Amino acid sequence: MWGIYSLAWIVYAILIAFVVQFDELHQGTFKYGAAFRTVLTTLPQTFILALIWPLSAALVKAHVSTTRLVSIHFGCTFAFATFWHFFSIAMYIVFIGYPPSRSISWYIWPFLYSMMMYGVIASIFHGIRASDARRAQDLAFSHAQKLLVSAELNALRNKLNPHFLFNTLNSIIALVRKDAIAAEAALFRFSDMLRYILKSEKNGDDRVTVDEELDFVRDYLNLESLRLGNRLQVEWDIDPLTTALSIPALCIQPLVENSIKHSFNPRSQPGILRIKTEMVHAENSLRVVVSDDGPGADLSKITDASGMGVRTIERRLQLEYGSAAKFIIATAPGTGFAVTLGIPYQ
């Protein structure tokens, strides 16, 4: 700021030096000595008016009222104009000599000009401080918003983990009653899945690659296949270019779990679960589609439902990516159920 302030005053002083010699320039002459004196007598204002900056800081810190602020600056304006008036006369006497008799207007206009100069500088300085205060306020608000989003994301993740554990343990319990050996194998898979969850929590960052999330989904499907058997048929359509992309942990598995719960558990006939990932270059996003050929549902009832898994994923994407994320449910009675995620990538 001070560099711009100094440069502006230098330009102003040089401009004044040319203005006061306008007639000489018109006649093709220029008095360098007079120009130097003009610059020399103009620049001291730079240092005097710079004192308004710490004064404005003290006034802002004291939280003075607008009326008192204006009163203080008005007094300072008068004091500066008076000082500069006598200072200018002194400089005139030093460099030129005693001034001849002048009309009162010759003294009034420079006095008013000095008052105006103080007012302009004071307004600029207070404007800068107000802008800095607004910027700091916006920064603090943005930081608070990020903390709020982070807290809500953690809360959502903490809801998802017990939700997953509860449902998976129920599946294992159901398997124990049917096949103890398969249940033992399921418990080993379940331990691997727990490591995945604990790893993301330990790191304090729930970002994983698509490949890591899909490995977790495969473990989950292998566990469920021990219970469902041939009823669960999975079709994978994974774009190799998507596997290294970063996504929130547990953003695909709850969608798969939702299909298992609503499309495979209630019926005895085989069904197909499809998992697809692809790059959408036009939108700079990753598209993930989890769909099944189950009984489907009424979309209006889905919108009003208070289920944990699917709606939690939608909220997490909104918090992390805002309007850039997409969460689309496509379903109707008898047409299956599909959820499409659009996750921006950089």
Automatic annotation (TrEMBL):
<protein>
    <submittedName>
        <fullName>Histidine kinase</fullName>
    </submittedName>
</protein>
<feature type="transmembrane region" description="Helical">
    <location>
        <begin position="42"/>
        <end position="60"/>
    </location>
</feature>
<feature type="transmembrane region" description="Helical">
    <location>
        <begin position="104"/>
        <end position="125"/>
    </location>
</feature>
<keyword id="KW-0812">Transmembrane</keyword>
<keyword id="KW-0418">Kinase</keyword>
<dbReference type="InterPro" id="IPR010559">
    <property type="entry name" value="Sig_transdc_His_kin_internal"/>
</dbReference>
<dbReference type="InterPro" id="IPR036890">
    <property type="entry name" value="HATPase_C_sf"/>
</dbReference>
<feature type="domain" description="Signal transduction histidine kinase internal region">
    <location>
        <begin position="151"/>
        <end position="232"/>
    </location>
</feature>
<dbReference type="InterPro" id="IPR050640">
    <property type="entry name" value="Bact_2-comp_sensor_kinase"/>
</dbReference>
<keyword id="KW-0808">Transferase</keyword>
<keyword id="KW-1133">Transmembrane helix</keyword>
<feature type="transmembrane region" description="Helical">
    <location>
        <begin position="5"/>
        <end position="22"/>
    </location>
</feature>
<dbReference type="Pfam" id="PF06580">
    <property type="entry name" value="His_kinase"/>
</dbReference>
<dbReference type="GO" id="GO:0016020">
    <property type="term" value="C:membrane"/>
</dbReference>
<dbReference type="GO" id="GO:0000155">
    <property type="term" value="F:phosphorelay sensor kinase activity"/>
</dbReference>
<feature type="transmembrane region" description="Helical">
    <location>
        <begin position="72"/>
        <end position="98"/>
    </location>
</feature>
<keyword id="KW-0472">Membrane</keyword>
